[in-house]
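To illustrate the input format used throughout this study, we show a single complete record. The first block contains the structure-token representation of the backbone; no residue identities are included at this stage. The design step must infer an amino acid for every position from geometry alone.
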């Protein structure tokens, strides 16, 4: 999937915010978001809208234009929640949004039946894509953020997952946009503050992923033994490696301990053993199968990375997947913000803009001549609101 309409690849900081959107404001936000989405669909088709939502900065700009806080973690939950409400209310919409925040994440399987009925997207395909996307950002990428929001956008020819994790200690959130299930750079964008990560999804982790497959083929008992050896090296205790290759791995480990996010012992307990047994019974043969295997848990991936690095000398990348920071604050000047930044939310401007958008879209459906006039007027209006790059 390409970059969205006028999108700028980048990353936005997302501090964790509490509170809620007042009902009177939420109603106006939903109506305006619906009008903007209709306009983009009318001009660029559903692919244009989804392509924009796949880009973190375009997504953030959309959020700001309807009046949400410019720097809030709530931008993800509110905007996807609003668009989900519209998509379920309007049977004529060419897309449907499933899942959401908290317990709503678990509803994707049951809601996928409606996507199949309305859009022709196979329920099993939606479920598989959803599970794999969640595993990509919780197991194969470990960056200190726990997922608490997971939304699937389905349309006739594709799927997009927008999910968000939180780091309570840093009081920050991170948003992930996934438009393909791949073990090599699956994100169309990641919004957050750069930090440390165990990134088995990085292009540079190719050899490490191959090592994971080899280690899994060793069987669960053998792998547990190697995890124990890696733990002893990290803790500075004697291991078999010290005897077979004195000073090599142990000395290297002591120098690097703490330098990588996965350089800490992995607890071996029944849960880890059960996960490894699942992989032994149904091992992945190709790298591409890793996100689809139930036994690929966060602890298993960290154990595989540790053993691959310390025993096989094949490190996993620690590159954080976020892109260069780009502050989307300018978009907050469209109608103001919920919390009064940069100025109070102006409901009169919101209502005028929304009505103009709705009228333009309706006019565009009347015929070619009227459509061209409406689209030209719509283009000027959208550019003044901050959405750039529309065709002339």
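Output of the design step:
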């Amino acid at each position: 999937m390409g970059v969205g309409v006028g999108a700028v690849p980048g990353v936005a900081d997302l501090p964790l915010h509490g509170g809620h959107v007042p009902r009177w404001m939420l109603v106006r936000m939903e109506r305006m978001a619906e009008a903007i989405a209709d306009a983009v669909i009318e001009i660029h088709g559903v692919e244009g809208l989804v392509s924009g939502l796949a880009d973190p900065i375009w997504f953030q700009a959309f959020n700001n234009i309807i009046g949400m806080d410019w720097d809030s973690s709530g931008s993800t939950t509110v905007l996807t929640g609003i668009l989900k409400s519209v998509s379920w209310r309007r049977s004529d919409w060419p897309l449907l949004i499933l899942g959401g925040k908290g317990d709503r994440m678990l509803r994707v399987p049951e809601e996928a039946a409606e996507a199949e009925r309305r859009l022709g997207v196979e329920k099993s395909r939606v479920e598989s894509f959803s599970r794999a996307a969640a595993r990509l950002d919780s197991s194969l990428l470990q960056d200190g953020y726990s997922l608490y929001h997971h939304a699937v956008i389905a349309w006739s020819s594709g799927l997009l997952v927008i999910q968000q994790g939180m780091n309570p200690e840093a009081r920050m959130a991170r948003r992930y946009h996934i438009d393909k299930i791949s073990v090599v750079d699956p994100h169309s964008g990641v919004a957050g503050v750069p930090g440390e990560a165990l990134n088995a999804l990085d292009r540079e982790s190719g050899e490490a992923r191959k090592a994971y497959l080899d280690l899994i083929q060793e069987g669960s008992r053998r792998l547990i033994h190697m995890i124990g050896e890696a733990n002893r090296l990290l803790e500075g205790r004697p291991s078999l490696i010290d005897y077979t290759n004195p000073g090599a791995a142990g000395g290297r480990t002591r120098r690097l301990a703490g330098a990588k996010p996965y350089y800490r012992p992995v607890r071996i307990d029944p849960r880890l053993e059960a996960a490894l047994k699942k992989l032994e019974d149904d091992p992945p043969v190709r790298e591409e199968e890793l996100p689809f295997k139930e036994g690929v848990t966060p602890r298993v991936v960290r154990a595989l990375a540790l053993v691959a690095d310390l025993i096989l000398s094949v490190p996993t990348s620690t590159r954080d997947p976020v892109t260069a920071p780009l502050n989307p604050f300018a978009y907050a000047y469209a109608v103001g913000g919920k919390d009064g930044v940069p100025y109070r939310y102006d409901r009169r401007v919101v209502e005028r803009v929304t009505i103009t958008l709705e009228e333009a879209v309706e006019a565009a459906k009347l015929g070619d001549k009227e459509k061209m006039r409406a689209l030209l007027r719509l283009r000027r209006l959208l550019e003044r609101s901050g959405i750039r790059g529309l065709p002339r």
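Structural context for interpreting the output: The chain has a mean pLDDT of 81. The longest helix spans residues 23-53.
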